[in-house]
Specification:
351 residues, alpha/beta, Arginase, Chain A, nine-stranded mixed β-sheet, 14 helices, 9 strands, globular
């Protein structure tokens, strides 16, 4: 298997980001990494259940006319995560931190060769398909070995290769009869825009049209940013469901826990991708930052409920940033992601 853009970590890489302190043990001291040599064999030899990897890219977001910056969240997350305390609540032995994809050279080529906005958009969308292929290959390999990927983005375009790779991996391991799984998404947007070329706004549409996504439930969608054509498509498809932010918090048709429970029950018939777009959380720096969204508490509750009560094929946290192209900056984003990841590992499989 050739993963041209994947940067594999050594234990030294991990420890260089870990602030070792006397009388304490940090998660970074305990997590494992891939062995040297062939990556397929290295994954087969991996003992850890949870495999953390990064996709720090802006290409899918820019292909969707969005603000660049989602490439910056991974490093911030990693610094916060590796320096969490190892204690009775969470230990690092069952976690591997294996590396990240680096598509910066692709970004540079587009910036150097595209002469106008239209050319850039077309080039970005073409590049997303190349990202899809590498991400899908690695995720398929991990899931086929019955590992649980925890993926930090990057744009929400990566939902498509995650769903495709996980479905193919579970099928290859003969865990499911067909390469098709479900998804739950906590998001301000459905990311179910038309299949006009790959970008961060249509990953679930491509996964559904290509047969890898069976059921999809999106929670917290903002009515102001739900295109009418997408709404009609969802209403007319019994395998798709949406619970809007307004129905939960403004009209109070159901509370937040009831909304998440509904999504879990809707997708309970098979394995499920657990998706969280950070633009759903109020004032978190992201490609589409919102002043009117969920609280971080809601995001943590969502992760806890999904980890405990779904057959989680993977966890995907995306669209966050510590610095955007417009100069906006907030270093706390990585720490929030770290909380979400540790919540997932603590509660996964606990029912």
């Amino acid at each position: 298997m050739t993963l041209t853009h994947f940067k594999r970590y050594t234990k030294s890489d991990v420890l260089s980001r870990t602030q070792v302190r006397r009388f304490e043990t940090k998660i970074g001291e305990q997590v494992t990494v891939l062995q040297e040599g062939d990556i397929v064999q290295a994954v087969k030899n991996l003992q850890a259940q949870y495999v953390v990897l990064g996709i720090p890219e802006d290409i899918g977001v820019q292909a969707n006319h969005g603000e660049a910056g989602t490439s910056t969240a991974w490093a911030s997350f990693l610094q916060a995560f590796l320096n969490c305390q190892s204690n009775d609540f969470l230990r690092g032995e069952d976690i591997a931190v294996i590396g990240h994809f680096d598509f910066s050279e692709v970004q540079q080529l587009i910036d150097q060769n595209a002469s106008n906005t239209d050319e850039k958009i077309e080039a970005y969308r073409h590049a997303v398909t190349a990202i899809d292929e590498e991400v899908e290959s690695l995720v398929k390999l991990l899931v086929a070995e019955e590992k649980t990927p925890i993926v930090i983005g990057g744009g929400h375009n990566n939902a498509y290769p995650l769903l495709k790779g996980a479905a193919k991996g579970l099928h290859a391991a003969q865990i499911i009869p067909l390469p098709q799984i479900n998804a739950i998404n906590l998001d301000a947007h459905t990311d179910y825009r038309p299949s006009e070329g790959r970008h961060s706004g249509n990953g679930f549409r491509y996964a559904e049209e290509d047969g890898f996504l069976q059921k999809y439930c999106a929670i917290g969608i903002h009515e102001n940013y739900l295109p009418q054509n997408v709404w009609i498509d969802i209403v007319n498809n019994p395998f798709l469901d949406v619970i809007t932010y307004e129905d939960i918090f403004i009209h109070e048709k159901r509370n937040f826990r009831q909304a998440v429970t509904h999504a879990i029950e809707f997708t309970s018939d098979t394995y499920c991708g657990v998706e969280l777009d950070l633009d759903s959380i109020q004032n978190v720096l992201s490609s589409a930052k919102t002043p009117a969204g969920l609280q971080s508490l809601h995001a943590r509750q969502y992760i806890n409920l999904c980890a405990a009560h779904t057959k989680a094929a993977y966890l995907h946290i995306c669209e966050g940033a510590t610095r955007l192209a417009d100069g906006s900056a907030d270093d706390i984003t990585g720490k929030l992601i770290s909380y979400l990841v540790t919540d997932f590992v603590k509660m996964h499989g606990v029912d």
